[in-house]
Amino acid sequence: MTATKSKSKQGVNKLRPADVADQLEHAFLAGLGALSDPQKIGSESFESLVKKGRSFQKKATARTEKLIDEVQEAIRDMTGDAQSKATGLLDQVRDASKLDKLNSAFDSRVAGAMSRLGVASKKDVAALNRKMDKVLKAVADAKAPAKAKPKATAKRRTKKKVAKRPTKKAAPKKKVSKKKA
How far is it, in rounded angstroms, from Cα 100 to Cα 109? Predict the structure, then answer.
């Protein structure tokens, strides 16, 4: 057995370092060759994807622009409809006879509700104000001193005090009692 072991050890030792280097170089070059094939395929595939992307972008842009045009047209139609409706409503509101009718109906309903609630009307308040003005004027006139008339240079007469005369007082009446006999 020792003979076979020694032969295999000798076989490994027989490989020369130059042969090993050649084998490693061949393996490295084979790896580079393996990488170059997918790289070519990858490049071609990449270019194909770029072309497809450009085509998709053009189609998407065309679709987007078409949708934008449709939306803008719909908005224009809706704007025209809204403007015509608004014009019609404004014409109705501006019609003075209808507005006057509406105002008078509103006023009469509000006045009716206020009278049912017992709230004074504008006419009632105005009448009360007139009455109050008259009363206030009368009170002011009563409080104000009468204007003194200018007197001629006459002398003032002084009143003399008159002494009171004593009045005769009646003598108190005596009660007469009746005696029983």
Answer: 14
- Could you give the CA distance from residue 50 to residue 43 in angstroms, rounded to a whole number? 11
Residue 177 has, within 13 A of its CA and on its CB side, a CA count of 3
Map residue 171 onto helix, strand or coil. Answer: coil
The whole-angstrom separation of Cα 61 and Cα 78 is: 25
CA dihedral 150, 153, 154, 155 (to 10 degrees): 110
pLDDT digits (tens, 9 = 90+) for 87-125: 887 777 677 677 778 888 888 888 888 888 888 888 888
Residue found by looking up tokens 């939306």 in the block: 71
In whole angstroms, what is the distance from residue 116 CA to residue 108 CA?
A: 12
User: How wide is the angle at C-alpha 110 spanned by C-alphas 106 and 116, nearest 5°?
Assistant: 150
**CB-CB contact of 115 with 121 (8 Å):** yes
Note the pLDDT tens digit of each residue in 131-162: 999 999 999 988 877 665 555 555 556 665 65
∠ CA 18-21-25 to the nearest 5 degrees? Answer: 140
- Measured distance CA(159)–CA(135) in Å, rounded: 39
CA distance 9 to 15: 11
CA-CA-CA-CA torsion sign (58, 63, 67, 72): positive
Q: What is the mean pLDDT of residues 26-49?
A: 80
